[in-house]
Amino acid sequence: MSGTFVGMPAFPEAAREAVGNPTLRGNLRHATHTIRAKRAKAVAELSDWAALREAGKRIKDHTLRQLDRYLVQLEESVTAAGGTVHWAADADEANRIVTRLVKETGESEVVKVKSMATQEIGLNEALEAEGIRAYETDLAELIVQLGDDRPSHILVPAIHRNRGEIRDIFRAEMSEWGRPAPEGLTDTPAELAEAARLHLREKFLRARVGISGANFMVAETGTLVVVESEGNGRMCLTLPETLISVVGIEKIVPTWRDLEVFLQTLPRSSTAERMNPYTSTWTGTTDGDGPRTFHLVLLDNGRTDTLADEVGRQALRCIRCSACLNVCPVYERAGGHAYGSVYPGPIGAILSPQLRGTQSEIDASLPYASSLCGACYEVCPVAIDIPEVLVHLRERIVEGGPVTREGNKVVLKPAKGHAAERAAMRAARWAFGRPGVLRTGQRLASRTRRFHPRTLPGPGKAWSGTRDLPAVPAEPFRDWWQRTRGTIGEGGAK
Amino acid sequence: MSSRERILGRVRRALADVPQDDPSYAEAVARDYLREHGDRSVAETVELLAENLADYRALVHRCGAGELPSMVARLLADRKAATVLVPPGLEESWLAETDVTRVPDRGESTAHELDRVDSVVTACAIAVAETGTIVLDGGPDQGRRRITLVPDHHICVVRVPDQVVSSVPQALERLDPRRPLTWISGPSATSDIELDRVEGVHGPRTLEVILVG
Ligand code: SF4
Q: Residue A469: its pLDDT value, please?
């Protein structure tokens, strides 16, 4: 992944800092609680939610199990529709391909629609190094970019900023990048949005190269799908002459019809809407409408390694709805930055260490950034058992074992005396030592309770031998949820 | 070895545990979810469409076929529109009662030219009642994708009940994936600032839907 996060402190340190920041905590609590309540309502409108969730899970699982076949089929259909397909084994290769494609157009600036894949590979920085300016056009990404900041949420990247902070950033930075903020800009959301509209419109109208990700790619037809709200996606997808989409290989669905599942579950799970304001689909190029040249860059960058792990591979089903972030007690307190990766929250805690490996302290500590309360699994629209993968990864870190890195089988040493172990211990201490986290975290699902040891396994034994780990209460998570929220996770839990 | 071969090779090795006779797509994917939600008459489905469009802040109008030209003229006048973008195949009569200057949807018009136009009038491919969505497929009466994006005011005409489906599954069934599609549910919106919903960041700030029939 990108170098953006190199040097990040491991999760416990980063989280400790975040927990001590009252503005950040306030912003986060407001945001996550608001989305959570709205989402439950949007999901309750569909009486067949459990069946949709099961179908989404099965479609993605089936696709992953036959991914080679679907990738080849996708390549054929995109090519037949007039697009060009490129394959990138890692971040560097993807960045090289995109840089070359932009240079071939003779342009030195590009407009971008929010894409986690391009954040993951550090594309903006790579382009910058080659003299190409990449403008983020999603309002939140603009706030992040102008603030020289990092996104902290999948869907609401500037969730950690309040309106006053945003006004200050706009006033101070917009003029550096183009059209300045209007005189006397206040902090009302409408005025801030208008300032962003004017600032970015200037860029859209002259843009000749657009860069996007995609939410889905349809193998059968070669269609790409982008789901968004603001229209910046449509701008980037239709106004430029050249469109370059960088998409992880796990984003495939087999057929056009499969979209009927995800176009129902994704908007309701993410922004709690019946449907997001704009969804664009395109298949190659269309004469006279939209870009004349279309490139699709298929990105591996650790995904095949993740696929090789039979327990962990389910993380690749993720459709990035961010529902799991909004229910996570640890995310709510620690914030997205503490995870040190573009994928924060529960999904980040299982995806990042798989994509990047667990050599670094931050990656080794991520599987511990959870209280295993199970709320993330309950809301996940593709039923990823995040607690199961967390526990699997913890075992892997502490006990070692075979893993695949860059396509090769390697045997991970047990974490004894290793930085990872220290990170893990610190993380455990962090979680267990914080009454707030603990209070929520202790209400564990009975099925995960067995994973909470009295003594820590492996090298942790000595550590826990002289310390008491808190006892796990008997009340299962689901009972607690029902008692405190008045409703069972509507996700059709098993 | 090319990256294509390298990645496909890695995928195949990663899937060594998957048996040769792994269930086929048809066997693996259960589709016991609903084709539509609820049991509604045609009129109720149209009513639901109107409600859901309005719930997402589209302005909804209804009229009979004969009243459409005057309705379009009135909406343009209310906006004080001086210019209106017209897709090549738009029904002539729809604009018969307005004298707003027409700007044809031309391939060579630049984005800056489109930015100076006040309004756009289009038809649609279909509308989805359960989600309050109109879908454009770039047909001659809808024009290229950019014309419904850059101007600040979009008037979209839906023929009811013919163009109305209940649900997302029914919509996908009727759409052609080879055409570029734009699904529109309410005007452009953002909730990026403290989750307060603000209409119109980049797309049209006003979406007016006329249900005709
Ligand atoms: S893991 Fe599930 S809930 Fe979390 S972002 Fe991915 S799809 Fe959504």
A: 43
**CB distance A31–B203 less than 8 Å?**
no
Task: Give residue A446's pLDDT band: very low, low, confident or very high (50, 70, 90).
Answer: very low
Would you report the helix, strand and coil content of chain A in percent, each value rounded to 5? 55, 10, 35
Q: Is A429 on the interface with B (CB under 8 A)?
A: no
Per-10-residue mean pLDDT of chain B, 213 residues long, equals 96 96 94 95 98 96 97 98 97 96 90 94 98 97 96 97 98 98 92 80 93 96
The answer to whether the beta carbons of residues B36 and B166 sit under 8 Å apart is yes
Q: Torsions phi, psi of A401, nearest 5?
A: 140, 180
- pLDDT digits 0-9 by tens, B115-134: 999 999 999 999 999 999 99
Task: Please choose, from the candidates A280, A276, A277, A275, the residue with its C-alpha nearest in 3D space to the C-alpha of residue A243.
Answer: A280
Inform me whether the C-beta atom of residue A278 falls under 8 Å from chain B C-beta atoms. Answer: yes
Given a cut of 80, whether residue A474 has pLDDT beyond it is no
Q: How does the average pLDDT of chain A come out, rounded?
A: 84
Q: What gap in Å lies between CA A21 and CA B161, rounded to an integer?
A: 55
Instruction: From A139, A282, A142, select the one nearest A224 (Cα to Cα).
Output: A282
β strands within A12-146, DSSP E: 84-88, 109-112, 133-136
Q: Closest by alpha carbon to B80, among B153, B146, B187? A: B153
B116 bridge partner residues: none
| β-strand partners of A84 | A295
State the amino acid at position B43 in one-letter form: A
Q: Which residue of B has its CA nearest to A85?
A: B4
SS3 of residue A427 by DSSP: helix
Position A481 scores a pLDDT of 52
The DSSP code for A314 is: G
State the complex-level ipTM: 0.96
Neighbour tally for A37: CB within 10 Å: 12
Quick one: pLDDT band at residue A444, thresholds 50, 70, 90?
very low
For ligand 1, is residue A320 a contact (CB within 6 Å)?
yes
Q: Tell me the pTM.
A: 0.88
User: Cα A271–A277–A278 angle (5° rounding)?
Assistant: 115
**Cis status of the peptide bond prior to A240, with omega within 30 of 0:** no
Nearest to A283 by CA among A81, A73, A70: A81
DSSP A454: S
Strand order from edge to edge, sheet including A133-136: A84-88, A293-299, A242-248, A209-212, A109-112, A133-136
Backbone angles phi, psi at B111, to 5 degrees: -60, -35
pLDDT at A7 over 60: no
Task: Output the CA A47–ligand 1 centroid distance in Å.
Answer: 20
For ligand 1, atom 2, the nearest C-alpha belongs to: A380
Q: Which residues of B95-134 are buried (b: 16+ CB within 10 A; e: fewer)?
A: beebebeebebeeebebeebeebbbbbbbbbbbbbbbbbb
Q: What is the pLDDT of residue A13?
A: 76
Candidates A266, A282, A298, partner chain B, best to mutate (most B CBs within 10 A): A282
Q: Is A322 in the pocket of ligand 1 (CB under 6 A)?
A: yes
* Distance (Å, whole) CA B39 – CA B45: 9
The position carrying tokens 């048996």 is B19
The pLDDT value given to residue A467: 41
Among A52, A380, A390, residue to substitute to test ligand 1 (most atoms within 8 Å of Cβ): A380
